[in-house]
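[Meeting: bench + compute handoff]

Bench side (C.D.) handed over the final construct sequence. Compute side (W.E.) agreed to return the predicted structure before the next meeting so the bench team could plan truncations. Sequence as handed over:
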Amino acid sequence: QVQLVESGGGLVQAGGSLRLSCTASGRTSTIYTGARGWFRQAPGKEREFVAAFHWSGVTTSYADSMKGRFTISRDNAKNTVYLQMNSLKPEDTAVYYCAARNSPSPSSDRYDYGYWGQGTQVTVSS
């Protein structure tokens, strides 16, 4: 079993920043060389891709609306993945989920990920 736990969400004003964390525990060897991703889901909307990277960290991928504002990174020693979010907008309000897959290749398709966290709420006020 692999557990993913997100933290770092909260309420922030438009233009502000937040850093989300996702820490893995349990049988982390299962996903050690797997890709990691972040997704988000706003009320009444589908879960959408935010960012992902290859297990090596060399290749990253971002949704167009997040490019230049969000940065995904990892700390292998801590089994933790981060999502730095800058210049936040009210439309970024959502529950943010981290995800992991066994394959090392990043994917923007949520169905490619077999491991999910519980999510953390991000609310951006105008």
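W.E. noted at the follow-up: Residues 72 and 83 are 5 Å apart (CA to CA). C.D. will use this when planning the next construct.
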